[in-house]
Amino acid sequence: MKSINLLKYTSKIGAGMLLLTTVGCTNLDEQLFDRITSDNFLQTREDVTRDFLRAFEHSYWSIQGGSTFMLQENSSDEIMTPNRQGDWFDGGQFQRVHYHTWTPNDGFTADPWNALYGGVTLATNSLEDLQGIKDPSKFEMTQAELDGMISELRTLRAWLNIRLLDFYRNIVIVTKVKGETTGGSQVTPQEAFAYIESELKESLPKLPTVQSLGANAVGRWTQGGAVSLLVRLYLNSKVYTGTDRFADCAKLCQEMIDGKYGTYSLESRWDAPFDYNNATSKETVFGFPGSFGLTHWQYDGGMYFWMLPNLAPSYFGFTDFGNANPKYAMQPGLDVDGKEYPHALGKPFVKFQKYPDDVRLKKYKNLGNSKREGMFLHGYLTYTNSAGKPDTVRGFKGPYALYFRDQVGKFLDAKPGTPIADKVSNMNNADNNSGIFPVKYPFYPSDDLNKIASAYAEIRFAEIYYSLAECKYRAGDKAGAAVLLNAVRKRNYPTGSPSLYKADGTQLTDQEMIDEWGREFLVEGRRRTDMIRWGVFNKGTWWDKTADADNHTEIFPIGQTVLNSSPQLKQNPGY
C-alpha cells in the first residue's frame, strides 16, 4: 500500500481544483458541464489523491477561518478582543460576542455556516467521485485503499458536521452535491447526531491506524481519530440531544487508552504536543501538517499570530510576518488596582497561578536550537533592536515601553504597581498594556530551521484522558478522575510537586474541573463548548459579563445572509 504524505500534496491541491474548474468551464457538452464524473476527471492515481485531499486543505483553514476560533474563544470566559484606544472596536462586533448580544445581522453568525459547509461540500463532491470508481486498479489502487480514502472523507465530513451541530444545532445533512441546485431542509439535532454517529461507526473498520500510516500519519483520519470524534459527540450528547451518553464516552476513552484503535501516548513535556516535530508525536491523534513554506493556518492572522502584542516578533527574533496585531489576549483576573475579581469563572491567568510551580507560568523565551520555555508574555519584553542596542517592546499608541499585566484599563506609561485615576475596566476601555498573551505554539527566530513548522494538533491524546476523567467524575469516581488528570498534569510541575491532585480526588469539584479543562486546553478553540456542557456559559458571570437572560445563546443564529439565499431554512429559536 502506498502511503500518502498530506504535506507533500498541499501545494498541488490548488492545481487539482484548477483542473476541476477548467473541465467545467471549457467543455461545451451541457451534461458534462453539469456533472463531472470519475470517468472524465480522474485519470491517474495522482488525480484521485488530489481529489481525496482537496477538502482537507479547506478544513485546515476552517480551524480559524469563518470566525470559528473567534466565536469559540471570545464568547467564553477565556479570551477577549477589547477596544484598545480605537483599535479592534470594529463596530462593536467583538463586544457583542463577549456580551452574547449577537444578532443574525452580524456577519460572523453566517461565517461558520459558510466555512464549514464549504468543507462539507468539498468532501461530499470528492466522495461522489471516489464512490463512482468501479475499477480502482485503473488507478494503481486496491479496493482497500479506495475504501480507506472514502472512510477518511466521511470522517472528515463528520468532524465538520459535529462543529456545525455545536454551533447551530438545527443543520442540513448534505450527502449529495453533484447535479443539486437547491439546498436541503434542516433536521433535528437528534437526527443530525444519529447521522454523524453512524458515519463514524461505519467508517471506523476501514480506516487505517496510526501505525499503518507510519511517518505520514499526520493529517490523515485514522481509527483513533474517528473514535476521538465519537468521544466528543458522546461527551456533549446531553447538550446536543438531551440524552446522556457519558457511559459510551467512557467506554471508548478506555479502549483508546488501552490501544484498541492505535498506539498513542502522552508527551513528557507540556510543550512537546505543540512543538516543531509534533507531526510525529504519539500524542497527536489528529493534526494538520504545517510548514513555513506551505500551509500554517494556526500561525496566521485569525489565530495565534494575532495573539501577540505589536512588537512581539522582535522579542522572538521572528520577523518573517512583520509586526503583530494584538487581537486576542486573556481576560483579566485583577481590577485596575490589582485586586482579584470575585467571580468564579474566567481569570485564566489566576487559575494557572493557583499552582505556582507550574512551569508554563514562566515568561515565554526562545532558548536557541528550536527550544523554548514558558507559555505567556507578561511584564516587560526586552530584546536587542536592529541597532544592536537593548530595547523593550512598545505599542503603536505611544513611545513608552509596554508592561503586560493581568488587568484591563488605560495604564499607558504608568509603571507597574502605580495607581491610575481611570478605574474603568471593560471591553471598551483597554490599552496595549492590557492582558496577558498566551503563546502555545512556538515562534522560533527567523534563522531557526524549525520556525513555523508545527502541525496543528486538533486532537491530542490528553483530550481522551480528560474526557474519561470527566465521565468518571460525573459517575462519582473522583479518585479515578484524579489519576487520569494527574497523568497529564504531572508534566506541568516539578517532580514531587504538591500541585498534583490528591489520590482520593477530594480536591475535585465542578469548578475545579471547569478550571482544569481551561488550563490544559487554553486557546485550543473549545472553551465555549466546554462551558456549555458544564452549564455555565449562559448562567455564569465573569469579567465584564453578566448572566444571559436565557439559554437561547447556547447556539448561534443562522446569519441573515444565509437565510436570504436559502429560504427553506428556519431561524434558530430566540432569534
Automatic annotation (TrEMBL):
Keywords noted in UniProt: Cell outer membrane, Membrane, Signal
UniProt entry tagged with the keyword Hydrolase: no
UniProt-annotated location(s): Cell outer membrane
GO cellular component terms, A-Z: cell outer membrane
Keyword Signal: yes
UniProt domain RagB/SusD: residue ranges: 423-575
InterPro entries hit by this protein: SusD_RagB_dom, TPR-like_helical_dom_sf
Family: Belongs to the SusD family.
Protein name: Starch-binding associating with outer membrane
UniProt organism field: Dyadobacter soli
